[in-house]
Amino acid sequence: MSQSYVTFAKKIPLGDRKGQIVYNVRAVSYGTLSTDAVAKQISQESTATSADVKAVLDRYAYYVVDNLRKGYAVELLGFGKLYLRFITKPGVTDPKQANAKQVKSIVPEFRPSFTLDRNGKRTYDLIPERITIVKFNPKGEAEEEPEEIGG
Q: Which of 81, 84, 74 is nearest to 107 (CA)?
């Protein structure tokens, strides 16, 4: 498994380093797999047809939204938990004023599933045990020696 990155520059807006340009890296993908593409992959490794897989995914998406609407959080096997979070106005000093009028909007939130080791370090289920980090190349070829993380 590998994850590509690009280098980007940022001008520091505040503090002791104001105006200084610093460089960092950002993860980048080679594209997005559609539901059709994923359904085809799953169907090639199972007895379900691509249409069967898409039908299940469609119903799953429907019931995730339906259950969020009903006030439930939804645990997605191997992925994590979907739930709704409030974007609120600034806090108030009178507890009687803390009510539904404080809510400006509602956004979906996702918390990836993880396990904790003995030292309290998180291991996320969605991230492969070992992953190689490589500089992004639109043709999918590594341009430098990869850096391996994990394991």
A: 84
71, amino acid identity: G
Are 48 and 24 in contact, with CB atoms under 8 Å apart? no
pTM of the model: 0.71
Distance separating alpha carbons of residues 76 and 39, to the nearest angstrom: 17
Report pLDDT digits (tens) over 63-87: 999 999 999 999 998 899 999 999 9
Distances from the Cα of 4 to the Cα of 25, 108, 120, 145, angstroms: 10, 27, 28, 12
Rounded to whole angstroms, the Cα distance separating 86 from 109 reads 10
Instruction: Give the end-to-end CA distance of the chain in Å, rounded to a whole number.
Output: 12
Q: Where are the beta strands (DSSP E) in 20-141?
A: 21-28, 74-76, 80-88, 103-112, 114-116, 122-124, 130-135
Strand partners, 133: 3, 147
Q: What does the pLDDT look like over 123-142, one tens digit per residue? A: 888 888 788 888 887 775 55
- In degrees, rounded to 5, the angle at the alpha carbon of residue 38 between the alpha carbons of residues 33 and 42 is 160
